[in-house]
Design a protein that fits this description.
By secondary structure, this protein is α+β, with helices and mostly antiparallel strands. It contains 6 helices and 12 strands.
Length: 391
């Protein structure tokens, strides 16, 4: 009996941990599904323009990446259910085995009780004692024996109930696993269709290499202008600090920087809804062969008319226009800077204090897409915005 309860305790503890893991997996799966649904909406809008565009391909690439993540999440969930089923099976087998033992023991006790149920026999059992002390011990034994019979019956009933519960749980988990497998197969079919569409887009875009190279040069020039503006801002602030002797941040600025740092991975997105279609760092161009693309931030594609909002409390350091790149805003958060570019309009001014999620402007849209370019800097060090915004 002791081994039974120790085994049950261990297995149920494991299942409890898996339950927590399952909750996390399901939350991740729901989030990925929502991103896929939103990306599908953006793709439907993009399909109105029949011409193959880089923005369509970027959306498809993002969709495929998220679809793969979703399939992996489903796989992880299936694995959890498989372990859950295996361990529940072990519990059930253990319960069945111990239940059989208990029933045999209980049957033996009942047979013994039937043979000795006569009150006269019990009296003879007591009177045949060699002395009063032995008679007293025999009386205690009879009482304990009766009590044990009762407790044994209760244990059998409890284990039988628990066994029924485990059998029902097993059936539910098997059904859930079957549903997950069906869902995985459906997502896999969707993935094949998206990859075929991706291949067609790439083939079509490869015929537009001259235009793509021109567009890439324009983007690089815009990024260089933005970088120079940020560097000029930092240089101006450093010069001002030297002239005034204020090399240290104020206590308020230090507190703001610490708050920003402590919220790493939890800072809200600069748009209410969007899909990351270009990531931070150096990566291969999606169409042009042997071409590396460098990005100092991320590009977030969203719906036309979407607004831009500050990702954290801070002060607007600069509002400026980039030739061929629309408007840009830089907000300082202590020693950190957040940069928002490709805006068609801005409704904040330099020196203005802003709050988290406060509207600062609207994103520029053309016939192909609506995309915000977003950067995070720690003074003159470029940071990956995906490390800071909420996952």
């Amino acid at each position: 009996m002791k081994s039974l309860f120790l085994s049950l305790f261990f297995l149920l503890a494991v299942l409890s941990v898996q339950g927590q893991s399952l909750t996390d997996l399901r939350a991740k799966k729901v989030n990925t599904t929502q991103v896929i649904q939103y990306t599908s909406t953006l793709l439907q809008e993009a399909q109105k323009n029949e011409k193959a565009t880089l923005s369509k391909l970027q959306l498809l690439n993002s969709q495929i990446q998220n679809r793969n993540q979703l399939i992996q999440s489903i796989n992880d969930e299936i694995n959890v259910f498989e372990r859950y089923i295996d361990e529940n099976t072990q519990v059930s087998e253990l319960l069945k085995s111990d239940l059989e033992v208990l029933k045999k023991e209980y049957a033996s006790m009942i047979r013994f009780a039937q043979k000795n149920k006569n009150s006269y026999d019990m009296l003879i059992f007591l009177l045949s004692s060699e002395n009063l002390n032995q008679a007293y011990k025999r009386m205690l034994y009879l009482r304990q024996y009766a009590k044990y019979r009762k407790s044994q019956a209760e244990v059998i009933q409890s284990i039988s109930s628990l066994l029924d519960q485990k059998v029902a749980e097993l059936e539910e988990q098997k059904q859930e696993k079957a549903r997950l497998l069906a869902s995985k197969n459906q997502e896999a079919r969707q993935l094949v269709g998206e990859k075929n569409q991706q291949s067609r887009q790439v083939q079509s875009l490869q015929q537009q290499q001259r235009d793509l190279r021109k567009k890439l040069r324009e983007q690089q020039q815009e990024q260089e202008k933005l970088d120079r503006e940020i560097e000029r801002l930092l240089a101006e602030e450093a010069k001002k600090a030297r002239e005034t002797g204020e090399f240290e941040m104020t206590p308020e600025q230090k507190l703001l920087a610490a708050d920003f740092e402590n919220n790493r991975g939890r800072i809200p997105w600069p748009v209410e809804r969007g899909v990351i279609t270009e990531r931070f760092g150096v990566h291969t161009h999606p169409v042009l062969k042997n071409i590396q693309v460098k990005s100092n931030g991320i590009e977030i594609t969203t719906q036309a008319g979407s607004e831009v909002r500050a990702v954290f409390d801070g002060q607007v350091s600069r509002v400026f226009a980039i030739s061929g790149g629309n408007m840009a805003v830089i907000i300082r958060h202590g020693s950190f800077l957040s940069v928002y570019s490709n805006l068609k309009e801005v409704n904040v001014v330099a020196g203005q204090q802003v709050k988290t999620k406060q509207r600062i402007g609207a994103i520029f849209s053309d016939e192909n897409k609506t995309a915000l370019k977003f950067q995070v800097w720690r003074e003159n060090e470029k940071m990956n915005p995906e490390d800071w915004i909420t996952k």
